[in-house]
Amino acid sequence: MTHEIADTVAGRVREARRILFITGAGISADSGLPTYRGTGGLYNGRLTESGLPIEEVLSGEMFARAPEVTWSYLLEIERHCRGAAPNAAHRAIAELERDKAVTVLTQNIDGLHRAAGSRDVIEIHGTLNRLCCLSCGKVRTVEDFAGFEQPPACDACGRMLRPDVVLFGEMLPPAALAALEARLLGGLDLIVSVGTTSVFPYIAEPVYVGRACGIPTVEINPEETCVSACVDHVWRTGAAQAMTAVMQRIRQQALGS
Ligand code: ZN
Fold it and tell me: Using CA atoms, how far apart are residues 66 and 48, in angstroms rounded to an integer?
């Protein structure tokens, strides 16, 4: 069964020229990163130290009212991400970009797709690697938050910075949405959803749209998700394991031909 689905997905990937990978916390879980919620999550089923649910602490409203509270959790999340390296799944997706048009739509803010070498990455929830000043607009790119004061200040004007991430209740970045639409309109040969439960409509929708347009769709996730019922191929396994098997098959095929 595992061999069969691995062969099928590898065949789809090999044949496709234009692929959209849609990724979520599950792909970074293989790099040892905790998800905020869900199995093994940082705030799984418990409230934060401030007694509030994580969605409230990390909301745009809280940041406007009490940015130091939001910042303390952003710093905690970043501390858990720090030092994490891309895993086999990130690397496989980056490697496929060498001879295919590969776009990554990710909900992850950990920067691991870019660290693995992917260039066409749509970070729909932003990234922790970029900070912007709310007063003077200066943008700063950072590897991590090591040595940051709390909350971090702009080195140009001294006012508070905020990371370029989408907080709960905030709008999605228009440029990211436009890039996603352009990829969908430009045509795709394959859509692969990896390590996401697809609870957000804008994450599930490309799969539905793809399916309706006759584009083959694949889901790689250990558990059932919101899009499981609608994809052509379901592979119940972890991201790194699946993508390793796919790349092995593609390499074997290349050697054999
Ligand atoms: Zn500034």
Answer: 15
Quote the CA–CA distance of 93 and 89 in Å, as a whole number: 6
**In which element (H, E) is residue 190 found?**
strand 190-194
153 CA to middle of ligand 1, Å? 8
Q: Name the residue among 205, 211, 206, 246 with its Cα closest to residue 232.
A: 211
Q: Is the pTM of this model over 0.85?
A: yes
Q: How far is the CA of 84 from the centre of ligand 1 (A)?
A: 29
Tokens linked to 38: 């869900």
Q: What percentage of the chain reaches a pLDDT higher than 90? A: 71
For residue 152, report the distance from its CA to the centre of ligand 1, in Å.
11
Distance 72 CA to ligand 1 centre (A): 20
- Ion ligand 1 — residues with CB under 5 Å? 133, 135-136, 138, 154, 156-157
pLDDT digit string (tens) for 98-132? 999 999 999 999 999 999 999 999 999 999 899 99
Is-catalytic flag, 113? no
Taking the C-alpha atoms of residue 60 and residue 65, their distance in angstroms, rounded to an integer, is: 9
Nearest to 19 by CA among 206, 212, 256: 206
161-165 sheet: strands from edge to edge: 139-141, 126-133, 161-165
Domains located in the chain, CATH noted = 2-33+85-125+172-256 (3.40.50.1220), 54-82+133-165 (3.30.1600.10)
User: How many of the other CB atoms lie within 10 Å of CB of 151?
Assistant: 17
Contact criterion met (CB below 8 Å) for 34 and 28 = no
